[in-house]
Amino acid sequence: MSDLNEGSRFPDPNSAAPDGLLCYGGDLKPDTLLDAYSHGIFPWPREGLPILWFSPPVRGVIDFDELHWSRRFLRELKKDQFEITFNRDFASVIEGCASAPRSYDSGTWILPEMITAYKRLHELGYAHSVECWVKGAVGKELAGGLYGVYIAGVFSAESMFYRISNASKRCLYALIEELKKSGLTWMDIQMVTPISKSIGGKYIRREEF
């Protein structure tokens, strides 16, 4: 992305602090969020503080031509015990992500105001979810899911969770396959987590992003 600040209400991302903090305050209205994502900026709130906006010096991405799924996982995919859907239950997915414990982070940044804001983005067609359901479960048990934002030709994955082993990874696999069908060759993951690192997630510089 070049000229990241052109036409944006946000400061130049290159002026961000070393930890990526660009500015704080503002709101989570759809226009604000779409402006941010269009310029490589995302919110990362903390309870009790104004909204924090980040553009880190390095950005987590997944290049689809560098993917490496384990043979064990690919074998597991063939088991017919789960069903994958898209945008069927965005609310349950984002709420599941908000309540999921994180070994690499303390607390949650998916605060109630974030949930409300991204539900609105979903209603407008910009935020999307992938769900993994247990087949045959009464009432369709949600085993895991992920959600993210798609704008300006880039899908930015926000968060994922699982209640059954590898359920979120199944969602990620299904999402990547769909994005590839749409002609995309990479996706934004903001930060490299243990799961994304295991399949080829990496960091690139802000300038490359």
Number of strands: 10
Give me the secondary-structure category: alpha+beta
Q: Biggest β-sheet, characterized?
A: 4 strands, antiparallel
Q: Mean of the pLDDT scores?
A: 91
Q: Strand-residue fraction?
A: 25-35%
Q: What integer value in Å does the Rg equal? A: 17 Å
Tally of alpha and pi helices: 6
- Output the strand order for the largest sheet: 5-6-7-8
Report the helical percentage: 25-40%
Give the topology string: H per helix, E per strand. EHEEEHEHHEEEHEHE
Task: List low-confidence stretches.
Answer: none
List the helices and strands and how they pair.
Elements (H helix, E strand, L loop, with lengths): L20 E4 L5 H9 L3 E2 L8 E3 L3 E6 L7 H7 L4 E5 L3 H10 L12 H12 L3 E8 L6 E11 L2 E9 L4 H15 L4 E5 L3 H5 L3 E4 L4
Antiparallel strand pairs: 1-3, 2-3, 4-9, 4-10, 5-6, 6-7, 7-8
Helix pairs in contact: 3-4
Care to describe what's here?
The protein has about 210 residues and is of the alpha+beta class. About 30% of the residues lie in helices and about 25% in strands. The protein has six helices and ten strands. The chain has helices at about 30-40, 70-75, 90-100, 110-125, 165-180, 195-200, and strands spanning about 20-25, 40-45, 50-55, 60-65, 80-85, 125-135, 140-150, 155-160, 185-190, 200-205. A four-stranded antiparallel sheet has the order 5-6-7-8, with helices on both faces. The protein has a three-stranded antiparallel sheet with strand order 1-3-2, with helices on one face. Strand 2 (about 40-45) and strand 3 form a beta hairpin. The longest helix has 15 residues, at about 165-180. It is globular. About 35% of the residues are buried. The model has no long low-confidence stretch (mean pLDDT about 90).
